[in-house]
TrEMBL record:
Main subcellular localisation: membrane
Keywords, sorted A to Z: Cell membrane, Glycoprotein, Membrane, Sugar transport, Transmembrane, Transmembrane helix, Transport
TM spans (from-to): 29-49, 56-75, 81-102, 114-136, 142-161, 230-253, 268-290, 297-322, 328-354, 366-385, 397-417
Lineage: Eukaryota, Metazoa, Ecdysozoa, Arthropoda, Hexapoda
Position of the signal peptide: none
Membrane topology summary: Multi-pass membrane protein
Pfam families referenced in this protein's UniProt entry, alphabetically: Sugar_tr
GO CC aspect terms: plasma membrane
PANTHER family: MAJOR FACILITATOR SUPERFAMILY (MFS) PROFILE DOMAIN-CONTAINING PROTEIN (PTHR48021:SF68), PTHR48021
Source organism of the structure: Cryptolaemus montrouzieri
Protein name: Major facilitator superfamily (MFS) profile domain-containing protein
Domain of life of the native organism: Eukaryota
Gene3D superfamilies (UniProt xref): MFS general substrate transporter like domains
Annotated Major facilitator superfamily (MFS) profile domain residues: 1-421
Length: 440
């Protein structure tokens, strides 16, 4: 879904396109139509996640995705394209609060960051494959190709197990123990974590376990162990969106043309090079998430993004004054590739990794929905209004705005982000409750 507009929008400008009057406004609506339903669908995803479980919520979410890609592939007009995009956006919005929660609950602390980082790796790999298909084939063929991923994902989900923590929340203790031992084994570390989970469950009152939505909201806004991690995550997710993560993905060809010109290099080649950097960097990020502390990675990645965006801003400004300079064209090319590297090792994977680790268990459905709502709202605003910013204030000022967001996220993490590396979910939650610092 995220990479499709990057190859679809340029093909709309072809002479044989069924849209003859495509412009920046139409482009922005086509791109953002998939993002708009993502802003409110996380609330449904959080509700389903709590009611029917993580597994079946994931399985049901594949239905609109499969339908959406079929509609896009056979579309003959703009309306059906947008309908298909909306359906694929519903799929992404539903999965937003589910995927990181399921991985965080079902995996051990030692491999949890690697698998949570795999979310971003899969996104970047999917974007590369979509752009690769769109470079050599029509957007219709690319849509049929994209259909395979939710279909295969639904098959794998059908044969997967439910989260043991969901079984515990539903007072299905025996099933929880069986599933936990099935996916985590019976090592000393696993048995210790299971004992802690059971102890925390026993300490909860029946009233707490069966609390209403209002009681959940009240707890979320009054207890520091609940609202502190949510505030940190909301601000970090929103700053990550305004760094331009998805703007480059959705408007890849236009970004390359705006920074390097139409005649300097093949725009599709640069786009694929950027995607390749993202994939390799995402694999590296999975390793770094196991090796480095979270705050270290956030500071390295955020600072790198900030420097690259400032370089892009300065070079684009100079190119507007000296448009024929071949030397100046090297700087934005290097900055774009370096920008993709720093985004992929930190800004993309780290927020989702932290979401799986920081969100409190007792309000995980509501908290993850609020988090995804704020993130996807920022996502929509960035995608919808970035073309306006590039056109009206220029690329150099737009990149400076992105750089300021990167700086904000870096400062936020350096001051307030707790360290979660090698901590169990219960240890992280208890540390917020006791107001202890996890950075040490």
């Amino acid at each position: 879904m995220m990479g499709f507009s990057g190859i679809f929008l340029p093909q709309l400008k072809n002479d044989n396109s069924f849209i003859k009057d495509a412009n920046g406004e139409i482009d922005s609506w086509i791109a953002s139509s998939a993002v708009l339903p993502m802003t409110f669908m996380p609330f449904f995803g959080g509700y389903f996640m709590d009611k029917i479980g993580r597994k079946w919520s994931h399985f049901i979410a594949a239905i609109p995705a499969i339908s959406g890609w079929i509609i896009i592939a056979i579309s003959q007009n703009l309306v059906s394209i947008i309908i298909g995009r909306v359906l694929t956006g519903i799929y992404c919005g539903l999965l937003g609060p589910i995927t990181s929660v399921y991985i965080g609950e079902a995996t051990s602390p030692s491999i949890r960051p690697f698998l949570l980082g795999g979310i971003a790796m899969n996104l970047t790999l999917g974007t590369l494959l979509c752009h690769l298909m769109g470079t050599f084939f029509s957007w219709q063929t690319t849509a049929w190709f994209c259909l395979l991923f939710p279909f295969i994902g639904a098959i794998f989900t059908f044969f997967s197990t439910e989260s043991p923590r969901w079984y515990i929340d539903k007072n299905r203790i025996e099933e929880a123990c069986v599933v936990f031992k099935k996916i985590r084994g019976e090592s000393e570390e696993s048995n210790k974590e299971l004992d802690v989970m059971m102890e925390n469950y026993k300490n909860q009152t029946e009233c707490t376990r069966q609390s209403s939505l209002w009681n959940t909201v009240h707890e979320l806004i009054t207890k520091p162990e609940l609202y502190k991690p949510l505030i940190i995550l909301v601000l970090y997710f929103m700053s990550a969106q305004f760094v331009g993560i998805n703007v480059v993905t959705f408007y890849a060809i236009d970004i390359v043309e705006g920074s390097l010109g139409k005649n300097f290099v093949n725009q599709y080649l640069v786009m694929l090079a950027m995607d390749s950097v993202r994939v390799v960097s995402s694999v590296l990020a999975c390793v770094l998430l196991r090796k480095l502390r979270r705050r270290q990675l956030a500071i390295i990645g955020g600072s790198g993004c900030c420097i690259c965006l400032i370089t892009l801003s300065i070079s684009n400004y100079l190119l507007s004054i000296i448009p024929d300079s071949k030397v100046l064209l090297v700087a934005p090319l290097v900055a774009l590739l370096a920008y993709m590297f720093f985004i992929s090792i930190c800004v993309v994977p780290l927020p989702w990794c932290l979401a799986g680790e920081l969100l409190p268990q007792k309000v995980k459905g509501l908290a993850s929905s609020l988090l995804c709502f704020s993130s996807f709202s920022a996502f929509f605003l960035a995608i919808k209004f970035s073309p306006f910013l590039f056109t009206n204030i220029g690329s150099h000022f737009t990149y400076l705005l992105f750089a300021s967001s990167a700086l904000f996220g870096t400062v936020l993490c350096s001051i307030f982000l707790p360290e979660t590396k090698n901590k169990t979910l219960d240890e992280i939650s208890n540390a917020f409750k006791k107001d202890r610092c996890l950075n040490k």
